[in-house]
## 1
Amino acid sequence: MKGKPPLIDALTFAEAKAEHVRLADEIAKHDRAYYQEDAPTISDADYDALRQRYADLESAFPELVTPDSLTQTVGAAPSEKFAKIRHKVPMLSLGNVFSDEEVSEFGARVRRFLGLAKDAPLDVTAEPKIDGLSCSLRYEGGALMQAATRGDGFEGEDVTANVLTVKEIPHRLRGSVPEILEVRGEIYMTHSDFSALNERQAAIGKPLFANPRNAAAGSLRQLDSSITASRPLHFFAYAWGEVSDMPADTQLDMIAAFEAYGLPVNPLTVLCHSAEDLLKFYHGIEDRRASLGYDIDGVVYKVNSLALQERLGFVSRAPRWATAHKFPAQQAVTVLRGIDIQVGRTGALTPVARLDPVTVGGVVVSNATLHNEDEIARKDIRLGDTVIVQRAGDVIPQIVSVVLGKRPKDAEPYEFPQTCPVCGSAAIREIDSKTGTADVVRRCTGRLVCAAQAVEGLKHFVSRNALDIEGLGEKQIEQFFAEGLIKTAADIFRLEERDKHSLQRLKNREGYGETSVRNLFAAIEARRQVPVNRFIYALGIRHVGETNARRLARHFGTFEALRATAQRALEGSEARAEINNIEGIGDVVAESIADFFQEKHNESVLDALLAYVTPLPMEEIVSASPIAGKTVVFTGALERMTRDEAKAQAERLGAKVAASVSKKTDLVVAGPGAGSKLAKAQELGIETIDEETWLIRAAGAGD
């Protein structure tokens, strides 16, 4: 600061207001120089003096304090819990590739989907894959209004108060920006900041963070935003959600637009024209990985043209137009001390290796997956073996192989248990009636008497991508189940009422207090209404994961419609055919759904649960065109687009795509060579159109 500023007591309100505005602009300029350009122009002491002067002005003239004031972005009163934010556009995950050959196949797959020649030009961007926490920033009129974590991709946590403390993230964008702009990127922590943070943790006797990603995630998800403000967090913008007016038509130009708005972007992002270019960038960045100053776990490839991205669309929970090329898994050597058998919610017996703790890629590993009994036998894994362990995809620890030269002489082949270690029921490997082969998984047959299956089912029910009941995690479920407080999902919603009449109230238990119990009951209350796809997934029906739950929800709309159809879905029935006909479902899943809803015990459990929980109907895509909500079947050869592209287009417009023609089919799009499906459509009097007519209707629906 140049010169000695006048005493605040001597200032008029007009003078104070003018200085307040000037200081805000000056501080913002220094923030950009430090956090975005890595070129600070003043010392830390001078910067702190500016901030202090700004705060003193507001203390003397409270009228200067507004929601945009710099003093309002830190030190907010701690929240009791995070609110939920529904993403306007889902924040989906990326598919992964691990080899050079898979990178070439990614390009080939994109060209096949689009119907392009093998040697057709295809520009793809490449950028480092930051190992941090995904975050979405919503700007309205250029002002930061809301920030959310990825969550399950459809609903995240409201971390607005905490994100406002991240100095690198602008509260207001520069220049002419879209009225609505959702910017997505990664919150991360640098290596030097991480080391300094752990030094501070050690100095005050607090636990150390395992790695920068955990430190960043833990810092952002603090209920007290002043703690977040004290942590050195950074941000890279690389994607977007809802945008009212797209400022560019390529991936690379969108990143350039973000930078022009004042958002931090990764300068290492490049445009590539071939698989060879992509691999050259990948191996180059892999060599530089240790010197970047922040953690990355691979490289992300994205088709550059936004028009092609729109055509490619999504499959399951990932875009077809992007993929992550992960770095090779990191390995270490340790000793296998034991094998525990865990029983899952479907009765599956899963072997887990207990290891001498070893650091793999910066994380201490003491457990590893052994997959199944065939995997143990194939690798001949025995107790006492020295083993090579790796974090597959830098995430899940697994045993790669045994160091046979170090095997103890008395080591015996491992015998997988034939009975459930929890309830003692027989554990069998089911035989596929069509192929005659045994399932790779051994399962407990004591479905109704096995406590492990009940407990794991409850853990799944409250898990993040199911009902997501905050404060009711695995530890609490195990404790409440053991004490008889929660035996079924319905018991969760009776917990508060029963607690009022209990002599041993929850708030009087060790680890619980008035606030934590109140928060738990509020979190349970907030889940009395849930999206139907989450509810279906939470039930734990075998073979029905998140993707199939959404397919069922989209097709039936309501839980009542699904349940009524599944109850009638006997083998060979029209109801079974309807479920089987849903794109992506198939025979095995349809049979599992029918079995679940036709089981009398499940019916009574469902009735009890539905007395407390209301599954909300699936949100439909609104369209002026009759395509939305209709069931469409594609048959024959399509000449203007590939079959996959046509299906993706129909789903984007809100239509339901079926695999075969039935009475519930609304529209058949028939190309040259259409056979039995076209004949059946004509027999049933279903409207049939050609590809050209379909494209005209689709264009009208997209307007």
Note: The domain at 95-326 is CATH 3.30.470.30 (D-amino Acid Aminotransferase; Chain A, domain 1).
## 2
Amino acid sequence: MSDALKNQRTYALVGHGGCGKTSVAEMLLFNTGGIARLGKIEEGTTALDFEPEEIKRRGSIQPGFAHYKWNKNQHFLIDTPGDSNFNGDLSYQLAAADGVVFVIDAVDGVKPLTRKAWKDVQAAQLPAVAFINKMDRDRAEFQTAFDSLKNSLGIKPVLLYYPIGARESFKGVVDMLENTALIFDDKGGVSKAEIPADIADEVGPIREAMIENIAESDETLMEKYLEEGALSLEEIKSALKAGVLSRELVPVCVGAALENKGGPQLLDAVQALLPSPLDHPAWVGEDGSERPSSPEAPAACFVFKTLADPFAGQLTVMRVLSGTLSPDSTLLNSAKGEKERVAQLLLMQGKDQTPSKEPLGPGAIVTLAKLKLTKTGDTLCDEKAPFALKKPKLAQQLITYALAPAEKGDEDKVYSAMAKLLDEDVTLTLSRDEESADILITGMGQNHIEVSADRAKRRYKVDILLKTPKVPYRETLKGKASEIQGRHKKQTGGRGQFGDCWIHIEPQPRNAGYEFVDAIVGGSIPRQYIPAVDKGIQESSARGYLAGFQLIDFKVTLYDGSYHNVDSSEMAFKIAGSLAFKKACEKAGVKLLEPIMTVTVAVPDNYMGDVIGDLSSRRGKVLGSDSQAGVTEIKAHVPMSEVLKYAPDLRSMTGGQGTFTMEFSHYEECPPQIAEKVIAEHKKNQAEE
């Protein structure tokens, strides 16, 4: 098995949305015989985008998986989504790969989302081969795209293939290592030829620069190159492979996936330059232990994706980290401490699954059906040698919506339908708001939430409405109030109710919370009733005074009261505490607080003015900005109510090139005009109820 593993490749296709990754995957599968014809995204016929929502959107919303053989060597491919709405779990997919094919667009070059994707690749410490796609398109500019790899991403690109022509004249490439031309035919094949005379003068200096870049990655080789002025082809190839594995060099291929141009050259680069599973560093566990990427080590597999299949049910997709996996075996789920029965080992080709009759070793992307307990992020391992891989960090969720059923009374159906999606999408979070009783769904962006709701509707036949969730305003005291009485007295036919308490109330510093001080002396209120006063105050403060939002950061001192031997009870003193609280709020005054978010926006420099102006119009306070390599990062404090739908607005403002993160910062007093609207809305809702 080791000999086969040396030539096995497991890699991910990565790049910004719209750069053509799925088309590149289609081209590779077609050239290797994995599919019989080239599908098109526009027609919904690609092998890896098969979900109805993907066909409708014309873009990937979940990773696609494929395997093929190239020159008799096994390759496993992961096609990752490029849209930031759907790649919040990219770190999990990269954890399953040994290398990356990084795709950029010859028309757009490096965009802000390209930089974000490259940062993820760097964080995963994966070697990469770059592919400049869409050389056949109008406005394709190879040199601009190539230069942006160095200038914007800070990588050291090594050009393996130089394009012959561009746009409608893109007809071939120059193999820079072999120093010969490859001319495309109508079916994607190539024939060798002399380098065209009109570019021969350009190619020479570019090839010299390529050799210098490769030589610079090896001191010994650099000395030889300086002394002798030339290197053998084998020396160049060997140094290039070493530079790629050390992540110092990034080889660059070019092509046009839709026209099936450049596929075999990219496949050769993947085979020759990306690492095998045996090259992978030892895997690090949650407890700091290490597991070598070796077929001789005990078995361990990392579950990095869960899919739902209409026929097979839940599909668990995992990477074999170590050891050998066989059909009809048993593994331990190290997270749950329970055993899972492995029946068939399935190999994915888009939506199709093929059973593997052979055992599979490190690097294999394996799918298992109908596991009982295993979820995304779990590790399955040899029960005699437990191991749990340290989970990669997921991207931060950015937006929350409230869910409501189209028909009243179907709340539980809505919750149940959305909860089923959580197994296959770890970037979704489902919760209930205790204040509003809303069902809340949190995800990576508006499209992410909308597509998830559409999925739930289609699969589980429940109509779901999306609404903007209530902003979690808070209330707090304006000042102090002393000597406030809360007295509850009720006489009925039988036993009456009596509770009487006196309190002082005062505001606390922000984030100090609630404090209750028992200053009763002389037994004016029996000890067993004092907690009831505290509880009555807390329950009332949770309902708020102004607009139904929790009142926070205040101190109550209970200093006097009276009771009745027969009629007093915990309930009576709880009501008395609530009455005292309401009177105290009326006397001290209450103000509304709004949540303030720290928003960090990254946009191309030319959009900086528009974005800052927009943030200011949202009552934002810009804290500062920093520009690097043509991208400006702006940090601001903005009220949450102003950025609930910021994702689509930013996308529209920047042509899809802006990205942002958002996290809660603090509460500030709400401006009077905003507070009046919130209070009026609360009163209106109360009147309707």
Note: The first strand starts at residue 9 and ends at 14.
## 3
Amino acid sequence: MPIVKFHHIENLHRVQRSALLMLLLFSFLGGLTAQEVPKEFQEKAETIVQLQPRTYGALDNELDNEKRDTTLLRYFENLSKEHDYLEGQAFALNLLGMKYRNISQYEKAVALHEKALAISEEANNTGFRILSLNMLGVVYRRTDAIKTAIDYHQRALELSEQIEAPSHHIKRSINVALNGIGNLYQTLEQYDLAILQFRRALKLEEELGNKLGLAINHQNIGHCLEEKGDLEAALENYRKSLAYNEEIDSDIGRLICKNSLAQIYLKQDMPYLALVLLEPLHDESKRIGDLSMSSVIYINTGWAHTKLGNYEKAKGFIQEGLQMAQNRNMPSNILYAYEKMSDLENAKGDFKQAYEYYKKADQYDKEISSATNLRYMNDIIVKYENDKKNNQIAVLAKENEIVRLRLKKNQTTLLVSALIVGLISSILYILYRQYQSKNEKRVLTLEQQMLRSQMNPHFLFNSLNSIKLYIINNEQKNAVHYLNKFSKLVRKILEASSQKEIPLSEELGTMELYMNIENIRFSNEIDFKIEVEEGINIDNIKIPSLTLQPFLENSLWHGLSPKDGEKKIQINVKHKDKGHVTIEIVDNGVGRTMAEVNKENRVLKKKSLGIRITKERLANFAKDYQNKFDVDILDLFDENGDPNGTKVVLDIPTI
């Protein structure tokens, strides 16, 4: 038996008195003129459009007497469109969609509700968005598109429950969505869960005093009880629903309730009593225009005649109901008709034909209950129940509580673990940053000290003094030549001091300038050379800036300065191995032993910090390489074992 449920919204108490008149009206909806609409309504509509109320409740109150007239609704929709009144358009389009839905024109109904939804989103009106979503859910439920229907109802429910102070209309929308969720449980044959949803909605409807909602939920509860086999309890709920429908004078409500009561009587083997209810509903259902209900009523009438042995009549009624269902593509009704045709042929003794109808019914049953839809719906239900933690479901309450406590315990453990890991990570990060900051500060200090050592007053004084002597002696050419070299050297030193590393070629160029300037005070008697072994690309080898200067200065200051005779300094760049090159600084000075003696005998003792600073800089710079820098200072001796200078050996990594 197909699931027969109410699919109404608020204030829709009655449908059109004539299905024929309704269809005629729809055929003229697109070509309305002001002359076809009463002047009184035109004035009323214009006033509403000027005021532009934004809520469904306000529009529903203003148009309560006219909202059942499709001609007036279409006029109001067009007028609202002309004045860019989006809420007015959404209101009229949703009501027109319901009219089409109730005469089984589902495609047109969907088009109208989708248009209303788009306009509601453009207006950013949550209330009309919820209404449009629920109405789309209702239409898709009518056509057994459960997957799509539950999507729309779920979206409507989520939007509704986000509103802090819901209006009367929003509360009604929540009930419509809950009713849709309950219908989903019915489809899955989870009747106890469905009843819980319907009773939740029933309670809210009682608070709102909505008799239409009370009728709908009693009807749905009755169906669940009927499917569970509790026929007496089902009868009680159907009768309550019928009583509410009588109060609100709902034609479609009476139709559904009387059909449901007839189904109970048929199950209780009271076909005569069922026919008393069903036969007056034939013309009534056609007059209303709800072909879905008409189809079920005719099939049930055939079922009653089958029980009475009136097989020809039974076949005629069932086939007429089947034809209606096929014309409007109602899978559940088609399935129901084939089941009753199978029962009819079985009662007649034609078991072969009964089996054929049974196979057709089974085919439709498989299509309707496809595994994809069932899995999807089941996932939606589980998600919904977990999100809402519906403790009203008594059967699952204890299990849900245990799961919740376990999850909470796991979450607490994870949270504490995360906090501990975060705390340790923060401490390590702070320590690392402190170390990094100290290291950067140390490097900066070394660079500053290195710059000061390059630019020490002694060097500046000697250089400028030598240039001054050229000027005094009127050697302008030499003065200009060395002044240019001096300024170029100072610029190179300043530029190099701001760089972490420079090519070896630049370093050698700077050292050549430095030696040219220093050679002035030695009357150009120092023989300075740079030799690079063939195959070494000094442009690709990186070295900390101003690395070689302290060693050259040391050779000049301590090695060559106190010596008489020939004075030489040579820089050699040689291959060492695959990952290193060797830089040698060789002088023929007095050697380190004599240099120390001379240093002690000086009145003004100069502290030599440049080499120590350079070694620290090289050690720090080496951290960025796989290999390290090595610095060795060797004493040189002649054939007689006398000091013959020093050699500084630097191993520079190339990778």
Note: The longest strand covers residues 567-577.
## 4
Amino acid sequence: MAEKPGLFSVFGALKSVRFRLLAIALLPTLVILPLLLGVTMVRWSGKFDALLTTKVNSDLTVAHQYLATILENTGERLGAISASARLRDITTEGDEDALRLFLEDSRQKLGLDFLFVVDGGGAISASAGTGTGRTRVDWPVRSSALAGKASHAIDVFSEEDLKTLSPALAQRARLDLVPTANAQRGEKPTETRGMMIHAASPLQLRDGTTLALVGGRLLNQNLDFIDTINDLVYRKASLPEGSQGTATLFLDDVRISTNVRLFENQRALGTRVSQVVYSAVLGSGQVWLDSAFVVNDWYISAYEPLVDSYGKRVGMLYVGFLEAPFAQAKYETLGSVIAAFLGITILSIPVFLRWARAIFKPLERITETISQVDDGNLSARTGLPPNADEIGQVAVHLDELLDRLQQREGELRAWNEELNVRVGQRTQELQLANLRLEATTKQLVMSEKLATIGEITAGVAHEINNPIAVIQGNLEVARVILGDQADLARTEFNLIDEQVERISRIVGKLLQFARPEEFAGYVERLSPDAVISDCMPLVKHVLSRAGIEIVRADKATGLLAMNRTELQQVLVNLIVNAAHAMPEGGTLTLTSFDEERHGSHGVGLAVKDNGVGMSEDVVARIFDPFFTTKRQEGTGLGLSVSQMLIARQGGEITVESIPGQGTSFTIWLPQAL
């Protein structure tokens, strides 16, 4: 036995080696590789997102260059027309019709919405696509041309400016604004301004007069323009399947030309950019390169501000593509990598464990043997064959020690069993004697208490009955003697009658508690609902005086067997107690129902109030004889007698109460056969 702790210490050292070897074998696969994989996946995800940002930035560059090319081409072509000798000759000759035809032909070739010649005073000499009259010359583009220098820019025309040129242009520019998620609130319901490609070139006449040739192209609802940008930026097969490239031109924060779809066949014209993008691009003048919510979905987006000829930010150019296909591809790639790693790990771990099994198996066998010995199985052995290694030698030595230990343990166990048998016999005899003594003592105490209470109660009841009879008799004699004058003391005589009747009832309860067998009435089959209804007239005055509302729920279908008077006595007692528990009024709920208890069918009667309730200490003593919470009115026998009457019929009465919420008494009686 003295050698056993030494074996445990050796085993503890081997066990420690076992777990260290496992840790060395599995640490790279289960800890280091997952960490490296996680770091790599995070860096790859960041690079993937950065690549998408670079892609959309490149797309924005292409769209910007196209827009800049359109502006430059418009300016250059307008300059070529203004430098033509024919235009100079027609203008010098003053042939209005020829000039108008020339401008109209040039306007159509350049794809402009208007083209006219204006002098420094704003008078339009001739125009194509617009009316004649006067127009503004304070635009930087026009004033620069009148000063002799060609210029072009993007400018915003007000509704009045558009109407001055052409009511048709004003109508084309008009867009009803559509409420858009994540956008800032707008006060105006309609966008009436127009965004123009605005160009002007000086026209030098032979007399030295300088006029300006002004042309423009309205970008509002110019779908050919925006579709050309989209086709140029997002060529076929330039995006993965499921993604979609989009381009949009904004006037302030309103989409005036876009191929983003609000519905399947409806472009999102009149919708507005999200608040966060608006603040960054138009508010701070930044270029937005990030994910953004566009109308009804998330896009990898690029926004850049557009500046007019005054240097003011008046709109935005946007390109972007759906984020969902790229996110799905990224997550699928990450999932594939994780699945591959898990698969490799699951396949490799069994190989490592199999290699280590030759070392761990003897250790596990030694561990199992020692555990069985600790559990009391002294016949357990390792059963390992003797090997040349250290673990095999320890196993053989352990088996030899266990053989000697089992022999000594058997001897001690035999002596211990003999001693336990003798002690057990004596202990059992003492326990039986003690149980009998306790039972006999309880019976004697209970019998003595009941006998004493019964004797005292019967004696007191009989002693009280005699004075009551004398009082009652003399009261009748006094009435006869006084005759008509007895009416003068009628109230006092009635009060004496009531108090004598009360004393009689108290004496009756005492005798009923002391000698229940003398008061047992005959049993009859009763309907619980009818008995409750018969009790109502008896307690009506008590309930009315207290302002108590009665709620009934008659659900019982069976009959019960009990003396009607006794059951009424129990119910009246419970109802009156409930009324006393609700001095400020309340609700009294009377319920009858079918219930099975102890394997027998029966009928339940519940009397529930929402009065003051009772504490656990009061509930524990509520059925004790002479215990009462009504210090001046109660006798403490009502619930004791009620419990006795119910128990005599094979039933039971229970109570549940919560202080401040109310009390519920439940009577259960077997169903009448």
Note: Confidence is low (pLDDT under 50) at residues 1-11.
